[in-house]
Amino acid sequence: MIRDKKGRSPDGPVPNERTIVVATGRKLKSKKSASKRFFVSGTGKVRYHKTNKRHLMTGKSSKRTRSLKTGTLLKGQADIIRAVLG
Question: SS in 3 state form for the chain?
Fold first, then answer.
């Protein structure tokens, strides 16, 4: 591939692992804010970590701390987040 002095190719920038190429030819990067908040489980569900489980855990009941594990998004929300994540 031919590149100029700055490392650019004549076809445009080379996509990296965070770049998504859509059908229109435009490239979209995954939203880093979403990638820090959501993750895709092994079964394909979009999961997230619930709030209030960082500190002061001794004052919270065991039942409450168990319920503060990861949550799952609904299908409509999950489709949107999955598109943003790439």
Answer: CCCCCCCCECCECCCCCCEEECCCCCEEECCHHHHHHEEECCCCCEEEECCCCCCCHHHCCHHHHHHCCEEECCHHHHHHHHHHHC
- The CA-based dihedral angle spanning residues 30, 35, 40, 42, taken in that order and rounded to the nearest 10 degrees: 100
- pTM of the predicted structure, to 2 decimals: 0.59
pLDDT tens digits for range 20-62: 555 566 666 778 888 889 999 999 899 999 999 999 999 999 9
Which residue carries 């100029």 as its tokens? Answer: 4
CA-nearest of 45, 52, 57 to 82 is 45
Q: 28 has which bridge partners?
A: 20
